[in-house]
Design goal:
- The protein is an all-alpha fold.
- It has one domain.
- The chain is built from eight helices and no strands.
- The longest helix is centred in the C-terminal third of the chain and has 47 residues.
Length: 270
């Protein structure tokens, strides 16, 4: 028998961990790139400052949301989570269907290294590199702000703010440890699969809490979250399959059209 809130807590921690893992991998690529060119002290110092800012944001935002009555948050955050989650899920579905390019960490790493090398040739000194620190700081903050949103909103609504924050922190520690060990971007992490899962969970939470805010009685209580997650996942897979089918059909039609055009123009010339 499930304890009250167990499903929501588990899903909240899982979403926070997965989102943090993905965003940390993306931030790590830039941090390692700038550090390999400008020095590890500059890159790690900028990244550490960004992490401190994010941690402070979680603490401040979390304490502020705790003071707001939970019922008042259901509808507003339900709608916000739906919009935010659908954005993540849409991109993941398009990537799964092959209609949107997968993120290439190796290419991003090479591009960032080239940019930093050209910057250093422009005459910056050998000490702390301000531009490298800024690049690392921005990478951590920009990639991490979505994780903060997920941790604060999903954790607060599920009553698992601290566990969600610990889950996100654990993912960050894993990624940072691996990055420092190999000094290369983590190119084998299935980022899109994680984003797909996070998008499904966030959309499901948005649906569930929006329904509760509208005084909807969910069958099974918290267990309805698991059913919604399964339904959203299945629907997303169906959408990906439809997009994949359409993409392949369009791809097969293009050569036929091109060939017909060539034949038509050739006959016209003769």
């Amino acid at each position: 028998m499930f304890e009250p809130g167990l499903v929501q807590n588990a899903a909240a921690v899982g979403a926070a961990f997965s989102a943090s893992l993905v965003e940390c991998v993306e931030a790590l690529t830039i941090v390692i790139a700038v550090s390999s060119v400008a020095g590890w002290r500059s890159g790690l110092l900028g990244a550490a400052c960004g992490a401190v800012l994010l941690a402070a944001t979680v603490a401040l935002a979390g304490s502020a949301l705790v003071r707001v009555p939970l019922n008042d948050l259901h509808v507003v955050l339900g709608v916000v989570l739906l919009m935010f989650g659908l954005s993540w899920l849409r991109k993941a579905v398009l990537r799964t269907a092959g209609m949107k390019a997968q993120r290439n960490e190796a290419a991003i790493y090479s591009k960032q290294v080239d940019e930093m090398q050209s910057t250093l040739r422009a005459g910056f000194g050998d000490g702390l590199n301000f531009l490298a620190m800024t690049a690392a700081f921005k990478a951590v903050v920009i990639e991490g702000i979505e994780v903060v949103f997920i941790v604060v909103t999903v954790g607060r609504m599920a009553g698992a703010l601290v566990p969600a924050a610990l889950g996100a922190t654990a993912a960050a520690i894993v990624v940072v440890a691996l990055g420092l060990a190999i000094h290369r971007p983590l190119t084998r992490v299935p980022e899109n699969a994680f984003k797909f899962g996070v998008g499904v969970v966030i959309v499901s939470f948005g649906i569930f809490w929006l329904g509760e805010g509208l005084s909807l009685e969910w069958p099974g209580g918290d267990l309805a979250v698991a059913a919604i997650i399964a339904g959203v996942f299945a629907l997303a897979q169906v959408c990906a399959a439809i997009y994949r089918f359409r993409s392949r059909r369009i791809g097969n039609d293009v050569p036929s059209v091109s060939h017909a055009g060539v034949v038509g123009s050739s006959s016209h010339q003769f």
